[in-house]
Request: fold
Amino acid sequence: MEIQNRNLMYNKVTHIISIGCGVIFSLYSFLYLYLLQGNVVEALHYSLAHGRTNYSIFWGAIGITLVLMLIRYGLNAWLKLHGPWVAFSYFPSALLLGVLTDVDRSAFHGDGFAHYWAWLLPLLLVIYVIIALLIRNIFKNKIWNSVLDIYNINAGMLAIGCLIPILIGNTDNNFHHELDVEYHIRHGKYSAALKVGKKSFHTTKTLNILRANAMACCDSLGDKLFAYSQPYKSDGLMFTVTTPKHELLRFNADTLYHMIGATHYVGEKNIDYLKRVSRIDSIGNMGKQYYLSALLLDKKLNEFRVVLDSVYPKEARIPKYYKQALLLYQQKDTVNQRIINDSIMVKGFNSFLEKRQKSYPSKNVERNLMRREFGKTYWWYYYYQQ
Reply:
């Protein structure tokens, strides 16, 4: 009778743990695929489907999670892992979840999964099966008297299982930001695109180009460009025909040139291309905004002033960063003045000039202290961005 009660308790505990592990892993898988790696899986889908079909991040996360659960239940029907080893039966699904999200920019240029998974994944699965069979045989007749031990072992294994996808999958923040920005651009959500990674000082040339395009699409280059880190000068404004493939996503040089309305010559620098297209009467406002931004990024204030006067009549509203650049320029050219009717900006500029005159322990300390207060101004970029 005691043995029968013990078996009933063991089966009940195993059943509860099995349900709990299933619920936790399903929820984890869905959130991992939907919130953390949704755009990465979309990139993989784009590669495998060659862009012929669309991918829904929400329904994709649900579908993949269901498949992973079916794999788990199918495999465990053979391995029969139970009791303390229920959570171990989720390891193959966790491994597949990690492999599925081990994707980088090469997915947009003909590659899918990393090549080493062709041999490593089967090897790891074979090793897993061997270990699972050994566990089943070694502990087949063991009687577990402590319910707490059963819970603890499963909890530990499930935690390790949930860690596997994070260790394998792509966790490069900049790559995720690139995918997020591009996703919002493709869906016309430019404001949402500009919120991605806004507080981060870290960036890539690809990310800067995508952000600049989002700004250009909503005519806000002059108001928002220097709210983000700009370490690439005018090279960070657009791709060229010679941009290496590893820097590209779906959004490439041809996409950008089509939007501006003119092609880019081989070997032509961004600043020269934009100077050329800005003189074409049929080119719209986007090309001119790109050119003004390129001049600011390359710190060519004299040329900027000339182009600004041709684009913006004296009575026209001037975007924020164009006004900041104009204030800076007019410190050097006291003849060709243009009135800036923005007392707050003028006061901020005077404060910036005053604080530049102070003594600092080193140039690096000065740069960092000034960045705290003026880091999102063109003035800081002009004097401190290398």
In short: The CA atoms of residues 274 and 291 lie 5 Å apart. The longest helix spans residues 2-36.
